Amino acid sequence: MAAQDCPVRPPVIAPATGGVDAPIVNVAPVQKILDVCRAMSLWPMTFGLACCAIEMMAVGMARFDISRFGAEVFRPSPRQSDLMIVAGTVTRKMAPALVRLYEQMPAPRYVMALGNCAISGGPFNFEGQYAIVEGVDNLVPVDVYVPGCPPRPEALLEGLFQIQHKITGRRWWPVPAEISGSLGGGA
Fold first, then answer.
1. Radius of gyration over alpha carbons of the chain, in Å?
2. pLDDT tens across 84-129, in order?
3. pLDDT exceeding 90 applies to what percent of the chain?
4. What gap in Å lies between CA 79 and CA 187, rounded to an integer?
5. Listing from the earlier edge strand, what are the strands of the sheet with 83-87?
6. Cα-based distances in Å from 131 to 49, 161, 187
7. What's the half-sphere exposure (Cβ side, CA atoms, 13 Å) at 141?
8. Residue 19 in 3-state DSSP?
9. DSSP secondary-structure letter at 180?
10. 0.90 surpassed by pTM
């Protein structure tokens, strides 16, 4: 039997486990205030895997300045961060480390898949490939997908706004004219 006739089975990667416990005391006005505080002080974890990480770094520079929107402090430790931005290609070798870092983050935690490689494997997703995870959502629950190869820094900021909207239930920053015109559905 030739080597090409043997099917190669990728190793099984265990997805993240666990969830968020319900609050002991749930007071709606206090919860709304806490949600606004969480949304305006997101601390992303430094987790760049490929070329999309360059765009993630660009968001911290003066031209885009992510600190204006409350996500200034990129943390090197998962225990100090509440937003994981998976920027780039996730390999099967890196997948257990990604799951471990996600599980070490304090709750509530959020995940943004940045770039086509993180979303679906990108150009490396073809029949017979065995080394790339075809979407980070197979490993951890993803809150926001930011497509592009690589996505522009403005797209990462829009993903941040979507996470803030998910936390608080409202958008805090104005919609740019190009986007608002296409979302209106009018002529």
1. 18
2. 999 989 999 999 999 999 999 988 899 999 999 899 888 887 888 8
3. 24
4. 48
5. 44-45, 83-87, 110-114, 144-146
6. 14, 32, 46
7. 9
8. coil
9. H
10. no
